[in-house]
Amino acid sequence: MAEGQLASERVSPLKNFVAGGVGGACLLLAGHPLDTIKVRLQTQPKASCSQYVLYTGTYDCIRKTVSREGVLGLYKGMGAPLAGVAPMMAISFFGFSLGKQLQQAENGKRLTHTQIFLSGCLAGVFTTVIVAPGERIKCLLQVQASSGQSRYAGPLDCATRLYKEQGIRSVYKGTVLTLIRDVPSNGLYFLTYEYLKNFLTPEGQRSKTPLTLPAILLAGGIAGILNWTIALPPDVLKSNFQTAADGKYRGLVDVLRMVLREEGPKGLYKGFNAVFLRAFPANAACFLGFEVALKGLNWLAPSL
Ligand SMILES: *[C@@H]1O[C@H](CO)[C@@H](O)[C@H](O)[C@H]1NC(C)=O
């Protein structure tokens, strides 16, 4: 009995893939409204002092959006990110579970913290394959919108043109920075989640109810915040590198030097508030969706 309680469940990368996709959808459902608000506040027309401003702040913007457009107004434009985030989280959870499976010496033996961290790192390696080109294209489009000139008609046009003009290397420009950003942060992300979930779930309940709501939400939320805390500085470097004109930077160290010279250390934490406000609820929802889906899949197909 005691042994049975300690035994960890058999890991199924396939189920983790599907459940990860559900988690990704939940991440977006919880996170997208805050993103809509952020973008509306960022882009509302500047009023001169006597004029009427559309939104006076975050809360005002939420209230006006919901009263004019209903709750669905907060979910405008969710299609495109959904098509990216759900597959990304599916691949991420797949990589994580594959890492766990590869390191599991014998069934039922618990993984060490280092092994869990390394499994999370593997998730970061897996997602980079799609995240690196995705980020390169996204950042180029985001910057072009703010600078007013349209070089690319959209994501597909951007990808084809990069590929035709300079080959696959150009599409994958920034891959090393994406790895630096995502490998250790994913390791920490998954380790934090597993560690806190276990820590917060009372010993006796671990085998009986693998789903304890507060533990999952708190562990997921904190994991999300920690992920961003260590991922944001390399993220700032990556965005700068991926959107810079060719030849502007000789290498990564060069980007770091430039950011530090122009803005100091706080330049590495740009966009901090918007990101952190969103990270807790989004990742709490992500892990909840993941755990519920995994439980459902285990119930539907126990032997898979
Ligand atoms: C972790 O942080 C990186 C940003 O730097 C972000 O792209 C990624 O989506 C985050 N992961 C999760 C699950 O929030």
From TrEMBL:
GO terms for biological process, alphabetical: carnitine transmembrane transport; mitochondrial transport
Residues annotated as transmembrane: 73-96, 116-134, 211-230
Keywords linked to the UniProt accession: Membrane, Mitochondrion, Repeat, Transmembrane, Transmembrane helix, Transport
One Pfam family here: Mito_carr
Cross-referenced Gene3D superfamilies: Mitochondrial carrier domain (1.50.40.10)
Placement of Solcar repeats on the sequence: 11-102, 111-199, 211-296
UniProt membrane topology term: Multi-pass membrane protein
Keyword Transmembrane on entry: yes
Compartment(s) where it occurs, according to its Swiss-Prot or TrEMBL record: Mitochondrion membrane
InterPro entries to which the protein is assigned, alphabetical: MCP_dom_sf, MCP_transmembrane, Mitochondrial_Carrier
Major site of localization recorded for this protein: mitochondrion
GO molecular function, one term: O-acyl-L-carnitine transmembrane transporter activity
A GO CC term attached to the entry: mitochondrial membrane
Membership in a protein family: Belongs to the mitochondrial carrier (TC 2.A.29) family.
Protein name, per record: Si:dkey-150i13.2
Record lineage: Eukaryota, Metazoa, Chordata, Craniata, Vertebrata
